[in-house]
Amino acid sequence: MKISREVKTAILVISSILLFIWGYSFLKGRDLFNDYKTFYAVYDEVEGLAPSAPITINGLAVGKVNSITLNENGKLLVELQVKTDFPISKSSVAKIYEPSFIGGKSIAIIPNFKDPVEAENGQMLLTDIKPGMLSSIGDKLSPLQEKVEKTVVSADSLLVNINNIFDKKTQQNLQASIAELAATMKEFSQAAKGVNSLIADNKSKIDNTFTNLDHTSTNFSKLSDSIAQANLGQAVKKLEKSLANVDNIINDVQSGKGSLGKLLKDEGMYNNLEGASLELKQLLADLKNNPKRYVHFSVFGKKATPYVEPKTETKKVKDTIKN
Predict the structure, then answer these.
(1) How many CB atoms sit inside 10 A of residue 300's CB?
(2) Which terminus of the chain has fewer CB atoms gathered within 10 Å of its CB, N or C?
(3) Which positions ≥6 away from 265 have C-beta within 8 Å?
(4) CA distance 166 to 178
(5) Which tens digits make up the pLDDT trace of 25-80?
């Protein structure tokens, strides 16, 4: 059977069209001869996810991103082509993550093993985004950047204030103070040298002083041991008993008991003593004024002058004794 030229041309054209379609699909990452499942996921942002990015389950590549479309509401619709016999549940999560520091973004399907319902072709999956390493570092560095900026601003203000404070006069005063401080330190160094020389000259005396101090501490230790061995408890008890007796004597005296208490508290005895003292005074005065009345020598038997008691003094004595 002879094939006409027109049929050959038609077969060639159809073959070329099919080859072009297959090549175009292959270049876009789609294999027409393989059975893929298509899923969709919607993200607010994809963070550098590109078409043909791999899709993995537990690190195993099971597909690729077919396309990313921007919807009217600003959401990003990602079409996922997955080829695997592993059952992907309906509530599985399509998470965008960064597999390496320099690599691009990928999508990891995290299946829900507790959900027995398998996802159908063309179904929408749940979504999630795992921050990449650079994003995490950026989030952690952002507060630090703000603190550094505030610190720089504060340091700048501090430097401005310092420049305003340290004018020429202040700088001159500061230089003078530093010079005086250097002179003082020099004098202090000389004084320290003098002290060192003094200590060196009197080293033997200082050693003797410390030796004596050592002996003194030893003697004091022996004295403290002797005191510790002494029966201080019994001595303290005797002292307490003696103090208690003294306290009782003082209380008796204050309450008027005994001779000393009566002498201090009995007004009658005080008045009698005062009267006796007054009469003794009068007697001595009369003896001084009239010695012949008490010492009398009579050759011819003349009688002595009788004693006359002074009325004023007698009355005063009687009133005192009466009171």
Answers:
(1) 4
(2) N
(3) 254, 255, 256
(4) 15
(5) 666 555 555 567 889 999 988 877 888 889 999 889 898 898 899 888 889 999 99
Q: What is the pTM of this model?
A: 0.37
Reading the block at residue 276, the tokens are 């006796």
The span from the CA of 124 to the CA of 75, in Å, is 14
Sign of CA dihedral 89, 94, 95, 97: positive
Round to whole Å and give the CA distance between 194 and 123.
97
Domain ranges of the chain: 1-33, 35-130, 267-322
> What value, to the nearest 5°, has the Cα angle with vertex 27 and ends 24 and 29?
110
- Please say whether the beta carbons of 313 and 307 come within 8 A: no
Contact (CB, 8 A) for 80 and 125:
yes
C-alpha–C-alpha distance, residues 277 and 272, integer Å: 8
Least confident of 12-26, 124-138, 166-180, 299-313: 299-313
Residue recorded with tokens 């530093």 = 178
d(CA 133, CA 122): 32
